[in-house]
């Protein structure tokens, strides 16, 4: 079975919606459909995006996170690092 590759903009929209609705049960469904890979390559993350990413990381057990060429504010990065 080949891996479903979701675009980073699509993934960002999904995790933001999951975060804003508090739908933690949807995190596992998202990760299952993307074979446990969160692709956020080439994105500029703001504080809401980072909160959504933290929410996602807090509600999963295993994930591959791709952040190639992604801009994350330093304070936000420091709050994400412990979750990795």
Number of strands: 2
Number of domains: 1
Strand order within the widest beta sheet: 1-2
Q: Provide the β-strand percentage band.
A: 5-15%
What would you call the shape? Answer: globular
Main β-sheet, in a few words? 2 strands, parallel
Which oligomerization state do the chains in this entry correspond to? single chain
SSE pattern: HHEHEH
N- to C-terminal distance: 27 Å
Please, what is the average pLDDT? 93
* Helicity range: 40-55%
Structural class assignment: mainly alpha
- Please state the CA-atom Rg, rounded to the nearest Å: 12 Å
Please report the number of helical segments: 4
Enumerate the spans where pLDDT stays under 50 for 5 or more consecutive residues. none
InterPro entries: Cytolytic_pore-forming_toxin
């Amino acid at each position: 079975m080949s891996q479903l590759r979701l675009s980073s903009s699509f993934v960002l929209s999904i995790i933001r919606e999951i975060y804003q609705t508090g739908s933690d049960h949807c995190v596992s469904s998202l990760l299952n459909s993307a074979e446990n890979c969160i692709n956020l390559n080439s994105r500029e993350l703001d504080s809401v995006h980072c909160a959504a990413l933290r929410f996602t990381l807090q509600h999963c057990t295993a994930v591959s996170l791709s952040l190639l060429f992604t801009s994350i504010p330093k304070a936000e990065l420091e709050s994400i690092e412990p979750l990795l």
